[in-house]
Amino acid sequence: MGHWWYRNIVEPGKLPLLLALAAFVLTFLVTRVITRLIRAGRGPFGNVRAGGLHIHHVVPGVVLTVIGGFGAVASDRHGMGGAVCAVLFGTGAGLVLDEFALILHLDDVYWTDEGRKSVEVVVLTAALVGLLLAGFAPFGVNDLSQQELQDRGTVIAGIAGNFLLALVALSKGKGRTAVFGAVVPLVALVGAVRLARPGSPWARRFYGRRPRARARATLRAYRHDRRWAGPRRALQDWIGGKPDPRPVRLPGRR
């Protein structure tokens, strides 16, 4: 285990990336637990205010991200300074992306349906960083044996092929499938061979003169969204908390 850790994590200089990913995920989870406790009025936590101004946690997140980012650029990735900066950067990024919807809408939409975008962005970011951590493992390791070179060559070829499948899925309007398919080959294959979503670049390019294909794609997209909207919302609620119900607007009132 120690040999594998050194050859695949420490020697290629990927320890800071692993630490940043761990800090990113842990910060997001802890932040969501704390905000849900604050929302429920439980525990010793409360909103941070300064002079009547509500300080969102995206503010310290930006500060930590800047410090960690510039510190990582200026430090050695194999040294202790690089590891510390990676943790700071991952922590800051977790705080920032937890309020991604607030930045996007320039409004406090944390506990609304629009706030679900923060959860989606965090999950996609963690998946992409995990892909970087796993996908680039064949690069940066020194003094490989012939057998290791051959095995890693096979891995590189597999990664390249799977990446092309993920690009096809992305062109078909399947962003989530493309991201997770970049990590799981079977997902990328399924996304690449299935019908494209209406309005995607693939559909505009190849379905323009095929009305039957357009109709099938539209029907399939409708059925897919109807089938998976509920489970997707339930998963998002479990991770990030259930949004507040929308206020009912009475007729004649604005």
What would you note in describing this structure?
The chain crosses the membrane at residues 15-34, 55-74, 80-106, 118-141, 153-170, 177-196. Keywords: Membrane, Transmembrane, Transmembrane helix. It comes from Streptomyces broussonetiae. This is Integral membrane protein. The chain is mostly helical and 254 residues long. It folds into three domains: 1-141, no CATH class; 154-194, no CATH class; 197-241. The protein contains eleven helices and two strands. A hairpin with a 2-residue loop joins β1 and β2 (53-54). α2 (15-40) runs antiparallel to α6, α3 (58-74) runs antiparallel to α4 and α7 runs antiparallel to α8 (175-181). The protein is flat, with a radius of gyration of 22 Å. The relative contact order is 0.09. The model is unreliable at 136-142 (pLDDT under 50).
Q: Order of strands in the sheet with the most strands?
A: 1-2
Name the shape in a single word: flat
Over all CA atoms, what is the radius of gyration?
Answer: 22 Å
Along the chain, the helix and strand elements come as HHEEHHHHHHHHH
Strand content: under 5%
Instruction: Give the helix tally.
Output: 11
Give the CA-CA distance, first to last residue.
Answer: 64 Å
> Domains counted in the coordinates: how many?
3
Q: Label the structural class.
A: mainly alpha
Helical content stands at: 55-70%
> What is the average per-residue confidence, as pLDDT, rounded to a whole number?
82
Total strands: the figure is 2
Main beta sheet: 2 strands, antiparallel
Spans where pLDDT lies below 50 across 5 or more residues: 136-142
Protein name: Integral membrane protein
Keywords: Membrane, Transmembrane, Transmembrane helix
Organism: Streptomyces broussonetiae
Transmembrane segments: 15-34, 55-74, 80-106, 118-141, 153-170, 177-196
